[in-house]
Amino acid sequence: MRQEDIEETVAESGYRQIRADIIFGRLAPGQKLKLENLKGAYGTSVSTLREILNRLTSEGLVVAEGQRGFEVAGVSVADLREIAALRLLLEEHALEQSFEQGDVEWEAQLVSAHYKLARMEKVMATGDTSQAEDWKRYDWEFHQALIAACGSRLLMETHSAVFDKYLRYQMVALSYRGSVAEEEHRQLLETALRRDSKTAKEILQRHIQAGVEHALGRGLLAALPAQARG
């Protein structure tokens, strides 16, 4: 393998790792990202790290502070509401297209995605949060499966990027709504299988809005240190 290819592979791997660590809260909102410290943790050079962090800055997950370096983007109530509204707008449109075009293979993948999510929700319902990352990963996979037949790669990618930002808030707040959310997921599956996009969009709207209000109602964002709030 050429040196250029090796460097590109290292950079891409580092990008995915740092991005995942931000989304899943291992790198906290407002945390300073010191290049010398990150170099050892992610096994890459300072110059490569700078490229990665600039890339994440363009995605809104990192903030560049001029000569002072980088930090993980903060969180705020207004930002959460805006992200949730954009997610709903994209997901409703994609969902309608997916319901119209989905075939039996799409149905099978959707059922499989829901099965994994439902199993993990049972674990969360016991109060065991040790697998919270798996829970949210399966949540992401289920909602992606719902819209997977929409026919637009760009729409899927845009939705995925917005969902990741929404997911970061859920990990920060660790907001699990219990059997209510579990039932909404089951209803979304059923409406998908009978291609009832009208009802599905109503459930989705309730699902997202209730998730936001549940997180805010617990006051978890307000309880974060000042540097974590954007």
Compute the separation of the termini in Å: 43 Å
Relevant CATH superfamily of the largest domain: GntR ligand-binding domain-like
Low-confidence stretches: 1-6
- Strand percentage: under 5%
Oligomer: single chain
Main sheet summary: 3 strands, antiparallel
Number of helices: 9
Please provide the count of β strands: 3
Instruction: Enumerate the strands of the largest sheet in spatial order, edge to edge or round the barrel.
Output: 1-3-2
Number of domains: 2
Question: Could you please say which CATH topology of the largest domain applies here?
Answer: Four Helix Bundle (Hemerythrin (Met), subunit A)
Query: What is the averaged pLDDT score?
Result: 88
- Named CATH architecture of the largest domain: Up-down Bundle
| Radius of gyration over C-alpha positions, nearest whole angstrom | 19 Å
CATH class division of the largest domain: Mainly Alpha
Structural classification: mainly alpha
> What percent of the residues sit in helical stretches (DSSP H or I)?
over 70%
Q: What are the secondary-structure elements, in order, as H or E?
A: HEHHEEHHHHHH
Write down the overall geometry: globular
InterPro entries: GntR_C (IPR011711), TF_FadR/GntR_C (IPR008920), Tscrpt_reg_HTH_GntR (IPR000524), WH-like_DNA-bd_sf (IPR036388), WH_DNA-bd_sf (IPR036390)
Keywords: DNA-binding, Transcription, Transcription regulation
Protein name: DNA-binding GntR family transcriptional regulator
GO molecular function: DNA binding
